[in-house]
């Protein structure tokens, strides 16, 4: 991380720095304690994933210089009022980071329940490209059919993928998340 590009000014000034640096942000709402930010990008923003990647690098550096390492900071990322991603820093319980090959390319994946508590997990790669959703599937004869249940990462057969890209890799994704949970290793975006 190049600290020469990091603005010093305190967490209370982060919103201003984000608006000045990323002009595609149409609105920012910040919690009163400066730990949660709702960002809305203009609906016509091109290459949003690359912009989010740049913003992520800036925020990581900014928090490293100006933030409290014991404080979690959350960023709700929207585009034209559509929820795109939730990114948390310094929060060991948010999301799962795994690495694997997809289409012959080494990918660092972030598996996250973007909506929170729904049991549907969005899958993003290291370039913040959205690859699809994974979700638990219950048969109609199962006791918890139609009811949200805690994710069972130990049973790959209970999961489905929303895209053709993820379907061939679904079992491996579930196994890797389950393995990281068993080891107590949660690789999340941290500063």
Global Rg: 18 Å
Mean pLDDT across residues: 86
Question: What share of residues are in beta strands?
Answer: 25-35%
**Major β-sheet strand ordering:** 5-6-7-8-9
Counting helices, strands and paired strands, the structural category is alpha+beta
Helix content: 10-25%
Terminal CA distance reads: 10 Å
Describe the structure.
- The protein is an alpha+beta fold and 191 residues long.
- 21% of the residues lie in helices and 30% in strands.
- The chain has three helices and nine strands.
- The longest helix is centred in the N-terminal third of the chain and has 19 residues, at 48-66.
Which features characterize this protein?
single chain, four-stranded mixed sheet, 21% helix, 3 helices, five-stranded antiparallel sheet, globular, alpha+beta, disordered C terminus, 191 residues
What is the gist of this entry?
With 191 residues, the chain is an alpha+beta fold.
Secondary-structure map:
Elements lengths: L13 H8 L3 E6 L5 E6 L6 H19 L6 E7 L2 E8 L6 E7 L2 E8 L7 E5 L5 E7 L22 E3 L8 H14 L8
Parallel strand pairs: 2-3
Antiparallel strand pairs: 1-2, 3-4, 5-6, 6-7, 7-8, 8-9
